[in-house]
Amino acid sequence: MNAVASVHRAVTAPNQFVEVGGRTLAFRSIGEGRPLLLCTRFRGNMDVWDPAFLDGLADEGFRVITFDYSGLGLSTGEATYNPAEMVRDPIDLMTALELTDVVLGGWSLGGLVAQVALAVAGERISHLLLIGTNPPGHLVKLAEQLFYDTAVIEHYGLKEEEILFFEPKSEISRKAAAESAARIAERTQGRSPAVPIAFARANIGDGPRNPIFPADAVLEVLKTTTTPILHLGGDHDIIFPVENWYALNQALPTLHLITYPSAGHGPQHQYPRASAEHIASFMRSTR
C-alpha cells in the first residue's frame, strides 16, 4: 500500500488503515516530504500527541505519521508493551506504506521501540529521534516513585498531566501544560479509544527498577551505528531522567542531546515549535 500523504492539519487528519501481518494498523498522515514515523508513549494512542508539535514538523517539511500499536486504540491484533515485540508495528507500517529513508521517532516507551527498530531494521532508518526516553542498560539515575503512583490513575486531569509530562514547580511549565491539553482536546471526531487501564496497570510494575530496558545488543548498536541520533529531553523527567543519556555521552558516537529547561517528560509539548525546529535543523545538519 502506498498511502497518499495528507494535507490536513493534525486535528483534522483522517484515520487511515492498512492490513499487514494479520492485523489492522490505524495511522494518520499529515504534511509532505521526508517520512517521520512516530512511536507513542505508555498509555498512548494517536491522540496524545500535541497538534502544535505535529503541525510544526509538517511545516518543517516532514510527512508526519502517527499510529496506534497493535491491539490498542483503533488497531487490531494482540497488544503488548514488550519493545522487542512492539517493534513489528513500525517496521510493518514502513513496509506497508513503502517508506524509505525514514526518520523514526519515539516518545518514552516508543523511544525504546525505536531503538530496537534501529537494531533490527536499521537499513530503513536515516535518523533516530528520541524524546523523553531511556538508553538500554544500567542507569545512573532512576525514575521517581511519583511516576508509578500517578501513571496508574485511570483518568488523567491537568494535575496529573503536569506531574507526568511537565514541571509542576514552574509556572511557565504549568501554563504550557494547560495550553497543550487544550490543543489536544481540539480534535473531537474519530478519536482513538484510550488504552485500557487494566492493561496499562498490568504492564508498569510498582516502582523503579534498574535496568528498565535490559537490551545489551541494542546498546552495542548505539555504540557502533553511523545513524545520527537526537534525544530531546526535559531537565526534570521523573520517568526517564535525561542524566542517563549524558552518562553515555562519550560512548555513543552519533548522539546529539537537547535538554529544555524547567521541563519534564513531554518537552515537545511544552516547546512544540522549538522542538520541531530543532529536529529539522538536526536533519539538515546530519547525514
UniProtKB/TrEMBL annotation:
A Pfam family that the UniProt record links to this protein: Abhydrolase_6
Key words of the record: Hydrolase
Signal peptide: none
Any one GO cellular component localisation term in the record: membrane
Species: Caulobacter endophyticus
Domain of life: Bacteria
One Gene Ontology molecular-function label: monoacylglycerol lipase activity
GO biological process, one term: acylglycerol catabolic process
Segments forming domain AB hydrolase-1: 46-276
Protein name: Alpha/beta hydrolase
